[in-house]
Design a protein that fits this description.
Low-confidence stretches: 99-114
CATH class of the largest domain: Mainly Alpha
Shape: globular
CATH topology of the largest domain: Multidrug efflux transporter AcrB transmembrane fold
CATH superfamily of the largest domain: Multidrug efflux transporter AcrB transmembrane domain
Largest sheet: 4 strands, antiparallel
Order of helices and strands: HHHHHHHHHEHEEHHEHHHHH
Radius of gyration: 28 Å
Helix content: 55-70%
Strand order of the largest sheet: 2-3-1-4
Structural class: mainly alpha
Length: about 500
């Protein structure tokens, strides 16, 4: 182990040094060459690099798996030594370039096109996916092998559940036309609602005003939200969309950030004064002393009140709108390309992409149909876009599992007709699909009922997306792929 650890330190140092040279040299070709030399040294000298070892964990025994943490720690120590040396040299420009590359490597649709809280959500989601993958393929294996070694047996089911959806023989392909009809009808209803009612757009997409307000004592976001709702409701022209606002804690417990789109299309000083008067009327009862309107507006006369006031102009709102559209389109195109290269069948990519698009469009239409009728906020904001992209990523997971099983069946039973193989594949993965979606829904419903008002719309979108995504995988994505494959086979036969 000592030799492995020392070899890992050296490998980390070599790679880090190569990276340093790469970032320091203006000529990218020369820089890449030096980085390649670092990898060449690792390979030729037989040094231990974690990224080159972890992929073989399934082909070796437990002893091999135990060396991986040692290698990882050694690589970390080696790169840390080089980083310390770089810090001593004060290579500020090098740090900036390294940061830029890290940002590029983290480029997911949400991360690229999102702003503010969406980027935070995307970053957390990326880290969660990476750590979840590591836990699933490494830690879970260690735990299972330890349990088997200690008790000699492990069970993944109970008597009452071991045969759940294991012997189903439902003909999903036969009812595909019914599924197509229902999907078209729902999309038509969504389009009608979108044209007739539109969407309850948040300030990010329409423009508005943002305020950071300081209180003389800790307050809760719920108190602020409740008071604002009561005061806004007193205005005759304040319909569901006009009084849309968002309240979040900003820093300390005595500071809140309020974003409202009330009179967002009026940038005059009179409109600004009116909005600030409304916020003052709602907030003055939360102070422990009698704060005047002028004190509330001007922190030069009082340390409390409005700290910052910003206008979200139409140009910024337009950029955010297009960024949201680009992020969804980019996700659909990227997933379509992935399915095409993964399974080498454009028909499967077409089915998956259409199903994902139907899922996203239906949720957008549902938000259009239900806002103002349900007792929680269905505002289309950055969080909603994050929900749509998360749903797309989740739904494709089920689709890939089903498609992979179809590919296995086509290889195992080449003499069976395509319809039989597709139906058998869907039925064989049905239990896994329902269990995965069911456990996810339990978590989402718990958050929906107990998570608070601010994220209820976000969780509602995710909940509907999980349900619709699961159904779309079975009744839309796979049947469309089947129809396209059948037509291609018929065309080839006739030719």
């Amino acid at each position: 182990m000592k030799k492995i650890f020392l070899s890992a330190i050296l490998a980390g140092a070599v790679i880090a040094f190569g990276g340093t040279v790469f970032l320091s040299v203006e000529n990218t070709v020369v820089g890449s060459l030096f980085f390649t030399i670092g990898l060449f040294v690792v390979c030729t000298r037989g040094l231990h690099l974690f990224t080159g070892k972890v992929c073989y964990v399934f082909d070796n025994d437990m002893a091999y798996a135990k060396t991986l943490p040692v290698i990882w720690l050694g690589n970390l120590a080696g790169t840390s030594l080089i980083a310390l040396a770089e810090k001593c040299t004060r290579l500020v420009s090098l740090s900036a370039r390294a940061q830029g590359i890290c940002e590029l490597k983290l480029s997911e649709p949400l991360f690229i096109f999102g702003n503010g809280p969406v980027q935070g959500f995307a970053t957390t989601l990326i880290i969660g996916i990476i750590t979840s993958f590591f836990s699933a393929v490494f830690i879970t294996r260690l735990l299972i092998e330890w349990i088997v070694a200690k008790w000699g047996n492990i069970s993944f089911s109970r008597k009452w559940s071991e045969n759940f959806l294991t012997n189903t023989h439902f003909d999903f392909i036969r009812v595909r036309k019914v599924a197509y009809t229902v999907s078209v009808a729902l999309l038509a209803l969504s389009c009608i609602s979108f044209v007739a009612r539109g969407l309850n757009l948040g300030a990010e997409f329409t423009g508005g005003r943002a305020y950071v307000i300081r209180f003389d004592k800790p307050v809760s976001a719920e108190e602020v939200r409740q008071n604002l709702g009561q005061v806004f409701a007193q205005h005759a022209d304040a319909d569901a969309s006009a009084i849309s606002f968002e309240v979040k804690q900003y820093g300390n417990e005595n500071q809140m950030r309020i974003v409202t789109q009330y009179r967002y299309d009026d940038t005059s000083d009179e409109a600004t004064a009116e909005v600030e008067q409304i916020i003052y009327d709602a907030m003055k009862s939360l102070y422990s002393y009698d704060i005047s309107f002028e004190q509330f507006r001007n922190t030069q006369t009082d340390v409390n009140g409005i700290l910052t006031a910003d206008k979200i102009g139409p140009s910024i709102a337009k950029d955010m709108t297009w960024n949201a559209i680009y992020s969804v389109l980019f996700s659909l195109i990227a997933i379509g390309l992935y399915i095409t290269f993964r399974f080498k069948r454009w028909q499967w990519a077409s089915g998956a992409t259409i199903a994902l698009a139907v899922n996203a469009l239906f949720i957008i239409g549902l938000f259009s149909m239900l806002y103002g009728f349900v007792p929680f906020n269905l505002e289309v904001n950055q969080a909603f876009i994050a929900a749509i992209l998360t749903i797309i990523g989740y739904a494709i997971n089920d689709t890939v599992v089903v498609f992979d099983r179809i590919r296995e069946y086509l290889g195992m039973y080449p003499k069976r007709n395509l319809k039989e193989n597709v139906n058998n594949a869907i039925n064989s993965t049905l239990s896994r699909t329902i269990n995965t979606s069911g456990t996810t829904l339990v978590t989402l419903l718990a958050i929906f009922f107990f998570g608070g008002e601010t994220i209820r719309g976000f969780i509602f979108a995710l909940t509907v997306g999980v349900i619709v995504g699961t159904v779309a995988t079975i009744f839309i994505a796979t049947p469309i792929a089947y129809d396209l494959m059948s037509k291609r086979a018929k065309f080839d036969k006739e030719a």
